[in-house]
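Build the 3D complex.
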Amino acid sequence: MSTIRKEQTPGQTGTFIKAGDVTEGLRNAQLQVLSRALAHLTHDIQNHLATIYESAGWMKDLLQWKNKQRLGLVGRFFKRDRGPDLKPFLGHLDTIQKEVEQGSTLSQRLNNFAHRQEETRSIVDGHKVLEEIQEVLLRQSGEKGVRLELEMNRDAAMIETDPPIFQLAVFDYVEQLMEGLKSGDCLTLEAGSRDGQFQVRLTSPDPEGYHGSRREEPAGRDFSRDIMEALGGQVYRQTSDGKYVITLAFILAGREAS
Amino acid sequence: MKKKKVLLVDDEIDFITTLSNRLGMRGIQTDVVYDGEQALDYVKKQEPDVIVLDLKMPGMYGMEVLRKLSKTNADIQVVILTGHGTDRDEEESQRLQAFDYLRKPCDIETLADRIRGAQQFKMQKMMSAVAFAEAGEYDTAKDIAKDAEALKTAGKLFKDE
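Done.
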């Protein structure tokens, strides 16, 4: 059995929210996401640097060792009759290159993400904006041991939105879903254009009666709804065949809301 | 004499493998596991003298491992080695009596020194516990060496030496 519920925005339910509260709430949440992103990504960059440091150190160890006992170790790599065995060195050089590439990608994403926070309402490619928080989402799920699978249908998906708030919305709903999951569970994030909308669909095992309680759309004030209202987006929640799906839908630029 | 055991715990495989090799070159033989669960399983089977522990790992966070060890295997000396390093983490690890707290990347000689220091600290603790036990002050001996099994091993060890 499948049920689809469209989440009501505060305006529709008649809940009275002061504009200032929402703005302040959004700003605080944005800062939290930003600081978490910084913490996650700088930690990972630090790990890449540490691996490079150790690989370089390993090579230095071998090249510097002078005492008799350790010459034997160096001798393993520099054999007079066969020339030097460079395999272990090449292995470490490969590691260094790989770590630099990965660290550089992370640093680039972090840089894009940071610049994005300066933007206000504009027409942007939904995929690109999502891609910038991909690493943050992966680390956020990795910390809990939840496997996050990302499926991006990379068609043109221009949306008029507030990019940092859009990122905040995705982050917040992923976090909501992860609350009910346990280590080893899988959460899928699919993104693509459908029916004149750019949809971000989050699918997880239905936590209800499974191992936790599902955070349903509350009747009163809800911050997630505030975010979606600020973006002019819609939220759909669906349960089907043991799966729980949250769809965040945004109108593609140039299309009218139906 | 009992061989000193050092366990390295980190999910960064390239990093920890290289670190293990470099420590080996300095006469410190290590075993390696890649997450907190594996570390606790290892400890159940063969108690190491020293654990070098990363904090941020998938699944069980390093601090959780330290917390569990401080209850069940308080005599194991833990050196935190992390790229995460917040001041709060450092304070918490001190509160849980980690032997030391180092940030990545860390100079290999510094790390090797701290591991040796941790081994020596454990040895001295056990020696004084044995001395108290031999003098009939069992409660004091137990206070010093939290793990009775480790105390027995230490007692045998000192007799052998």
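The beta strands of chain B are 6-9, 30-33, 50-53, 77-82, 100-103.
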